């Protein structure tokens, strides 16, 4: 069966009906790049979110939790970059709540229908005079066209080199429905929920409780399957909003078009996740690891993430070194059972290990393959039916350079 959705290459968070977005520079960043943005829905949207599992959670996460706890609906998401507002104590909490109140008043919505997100340097207080002036100007910058989505995407970037968006169109009850997303993330990526920051909009009608369930399920096989550097941020958050303005009946798990919606959401989140991995700080290539034949899907996920999280595997990919020994070593330390006599490994289509025994292969062909911008590692354990895919990037000299001077 083919995909039950159509990819919309030019789509963004403003493509679904009812959404406007925008961004501007308010002075949090040293450059003149946008550093404050918002997504606004013209009606209360069913909303859901997942958050970092890091014990040190930034103030905006607490504020967003409070908002969603009221009724599971949002009218707006306010985001700043350049400052994480994390580990900033009571003042940071007060500032996050002030941001929520100010944007709520500026656009005329209840404050409990506003989510807040921040990203940037940890441990520094926000320049609230800059934030407040930016919030006052934001309503005039909100647009429902592609430029609104573009400005918002630029406002959420930190060390990212490119914006990250995805969009699909599908049919529910005979009506066109869109699912779109935007994300930022380049470093401190090893999430146990989502990514640094991710935002999904849709005009489908879906209750908040079901959207929450589906968002968690989707996150487990997309954002939770990427790594850049093994560090989970204090600010990781993924928020989804469903306006319901496409019309048609409300989705349920028994709805005839629910599977299509779930597939579309998984595609959008998967594309954003891969874009984050590909844009890892200093990265030159995307590493995609596919594990099959595991005892369970959970075991396959553990092995796939161990492989892409290995500094040795990542370094070998950067150096175009077909060192399969680093891959098999990662398989063996993933903490799940395997048959040590039945493992196959391929680099692209090049077989380098079969039944846990070395296979003679063309080193020049392997070198040429590994010099590409995408490296596919395929591991078949021949141990069960479990399978998973994970994404990461190579480890380069530039990663150290970028992070050695992050604050300065």
**CATH topology group of the largest domain:** L-amino peptidase D-ALA esterase/amidase
Total domain modules: 2
Inertia-based shape: globular
Quaternary state, please? single chain
User: Average pLDDT across residues?
Assistant: 91
Task: Specify the CATH architecture of the largest domain.
Answer: 4-Layer Sandwich
**Number of helical elements:** 11
The rounded distance between the terminal residues' Cα atoms is 52 Å
Radius of gyration: 22 Å
For the sheet with most strands, the description reads:
9 strands, mixed
Order of helices and strands: EEEHEHEHHEEEHEHEHHHEEEHEEH
In percent terms, what proportion of residues is strand?
25-35%
State the CATH class of the largest domain. Answer: Alpha Beta
Structural class: alpha+beta
* Strands, count: 15
Low-pLDDT ranges: none
Roughly how much helix do the residues carry, as a percent range? 25-40%
CATH superfamily of the largest domain: L-amino peptidase D-ALA esterase/amidase
């Amino acid at each position: 069966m083919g995909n039950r959705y159509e990819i919309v290459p030019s789509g963004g968070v403003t493509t679904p009906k009812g959404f406007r977005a925008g961004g501007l520079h308010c002075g949090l960043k040293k450059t003149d790049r946008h550093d404050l943005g918002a997504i606004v829905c013209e009606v209360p949207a069913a909303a859901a979110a997942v958050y970092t599992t890091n014990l040190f959670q930034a103030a905006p996460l607490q504020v967003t939790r409070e908002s969603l706890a009221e009724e599971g609906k949002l009218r707006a998401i306010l985001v700043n970059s350049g400052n994480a507002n994390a580990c900033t104590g009571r003042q940071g909490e007060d500032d996050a709540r002030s941001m929520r109140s100010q944007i709520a008043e500026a656009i005329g919505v209840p404050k409990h229908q506003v989510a807040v997100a921040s990203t940037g340097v940890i441990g520094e207080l926000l320049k609230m005079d800059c934030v407040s002036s930016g919030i006052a100007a934001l309503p005039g910058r909100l647009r429902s066209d592609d430029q609104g989505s573009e400005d918002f995407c630029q406002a959420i970037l930190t060390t990212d080199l490119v914006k990250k968006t995805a969009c699909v169109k599908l049919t529910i009850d005979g009506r066109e429905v869109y699912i779109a997303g935007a994300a930022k993330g380049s470093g401190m990526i090893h999430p146990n929920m989502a990514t640094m920051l991710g935002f999904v909009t849709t005009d489908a009608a879906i209750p908040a409780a079901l959207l929450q369930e589906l968002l968690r399920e989707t996150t487990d096989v997309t954002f939770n399957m990427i790594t850049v550097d093994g560090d989970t941020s204090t600010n990781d958050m993924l928020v989804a909003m469903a306006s319901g303005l496409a019309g048609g009946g409300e989705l349920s798990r028994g709805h005839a078009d629910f599977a299509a919606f779930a597939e579309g959401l998984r595609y959008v989140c998967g594309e954003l996740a891969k874009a984050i991995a590909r844009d890892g700080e200093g990265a030159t290539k995307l590493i995609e690891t596919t594990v099959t034949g595991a005892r369970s899907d959970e075991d396959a996920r553990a092995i796939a993430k161990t492989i892409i999280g290995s500094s040795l595997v990542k370094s070998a990919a950067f150096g175009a070194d077909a060192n399969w020994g680093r891959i098999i070593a990662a398989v063996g330390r993933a903490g799940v059972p395997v048959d040590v006599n039945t493992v196959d490994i391929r680099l692209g289509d090049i077989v380098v290990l079969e039944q846990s025994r070395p296979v003679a292969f063309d080193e020049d062909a392997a070198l040429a393959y590994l010099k590409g911008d995408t490296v596919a590692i395929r591991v078949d354990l021949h141990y069960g039916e479990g399978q998973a895919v994970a994404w990461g990037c190579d480890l380069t000299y530039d990663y150290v350079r970028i992070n050695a001077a992050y604050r300065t």
